[in-house]
Amino acid sequence: MKLWGTDIIAIDPLTGELKTWGGPDIKAPSKKLAEEWCRINCGYLRVIDELVCEIPCKPGTYEPDWDNMIDYEQIENN
Fold it and tell me: Which one of 10, 14, 20, 55 has the fewest CB atoms closer than 10 angstroms to its CB?
């Protein structure tokens, strides 16, 4: 099943500014179905695009840890 990234546009309770926040990842076979799920279950979420991988940082740094990359396309094709 594909993973779809989402975001939420909401007011920051500390500053009162309108900000974009990362939302939960949605599992769905297509972007259209992910958008439909969001509309029915969480009307405030917006589907951004398909997540194809996650690249964590090395502990204590902002340096990418390519050896521990999670490739969602490879998982889906197995």
Answer: 14
pTM above 0.85, yes or no: no
Rounded to whole angstroms, how far apart are CA atoms 47 and 8? 9
C-alpha span between 46 and 25 (Å, rounded)? 11
pLDDT, tens only, 22-65: 999 999 999 999 999 999 999 899 999 999 999 999 999 999 99
User: Domain residue spans in the chain?
Assistant: 3-77
**CA-CA distances (angstroms) from residue 12 to 2, 3, 7, 23, 50?**
30, 27, 14, 14, 26
Mean pLDDT of the chain: 93
- Judged against a pLDDT cut of 80, whether residue 72 lies above it is answered with yes
Residue 11 pairs with which residues in a beta bridge?
A: 18
